[in-house]
Amino acid sequence: MKGIIFCEFLEMAEEAFGIVVVDEMLETTELPSGGIYTSVGTYDHQELIAMVIRLSQITKTPLPDLLQTYGQNLFGKLMETLPQFIPQNQDCFEFIKAIDSYIHVEVEKLYPDAELPRLRCDEVDDNNLLLHYSSCRPFAKVAEGLLLGCADYFNNAFTLSVADSEQPSDHEISFQLLRTKKSA
Ligand code: HEM
Known about the structure:
- This protein is an alpha+beta fold.
- It has six helices and four strands; from the N terminus they run αααααββαββ.
- A four-stranded antiparallel beta sheet has the order 1-2-4-3, with helices on one face.
- Helix 1 packs across helix 4 and helix 4 packs across helix 6.
- 27% of the residues are buried.
């Protein structure tokens, strides 16, 4: 998994809990990389999982809450750090449909060792979109956070819920997005 994802996690953890907690997390987690990440490097995603679990223990914050908050912050950071991948003048659903078909494809061209999830979209109608996440990594909660970050970015243009037709898991989940405003 790309280092940018790790760097953003450490930044979020420091902003939310402070450097002392982050140091304790790094010192008490088994990390083959030694806890030093560069944004272009590639690291085992298990290191990220190990750090989030440890942070959850130290701060007594439920793991799903940490993963979701992390994803929500990560969205804005990705938009800032990788602006070349952002199609312009799209409405929120066009943007979301472009993640799998364009944004993540471009990410993979730039970083051939990146491993992206599948994000399949079913457009029920103009105001109702189903998005199906699947990945070999257990980051469904991060995906949910990223979508919340995306809703923030589009000024709350849609509401998000877990679609109840499926049995959600950390590797596979479906979300329902309902548009709240026209042409946002
Ligand atoms: C709502 C919008 C998005 C969702 C739901 C989403 C979902 C995800 C998830 C869940 C991952 C973690 C890997 C996995 O679960 O298998 C990921 C990785 C990644 N995404 Fe996205 N993403 C979104 C938007 C973006 C945008 C806007 C960018 C770039 C501008 C981006 C670039 C990346 C990169 C660089 C990775 C890391 C790949 C790796 O480490 O190998 N994503 N995405």
